[in-house]
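Fig. S4 source data, part A: sequence.
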Amino acid sequence: MEEEWKRLSEKEFQIMTYMWEENHPLTMNEIREKIGTQGKTANVSTTGSQIRGLIEKGFISQSGHRGQMARYMASVSKEAYYKWELHEFRKRWNLTSVLRVI
């Protein structure tokens, strides 16, 4: 695999899953509403940090200015990420040769 991604945290994966499901640019508020728990919207600064991390990792892109008018879109497909995760899992557990047999 040639991608040099880093594994997503649980919250980052939750954000990406929502972005893959929606498949269109989303605002910060839309993301916050979806990933909030117990009927509460997720914290602005925490969600902003997670989004910045995903941008830095190359998983999402931003259009527009930061803040309320910005829109975020997945830059990596769900299929590409799952393929990478499977590759990393096999590499970590040295399963490449075992899986070829199966």
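Fig. S4 source data, part B ends here. The radius of gyration is 16 Å.
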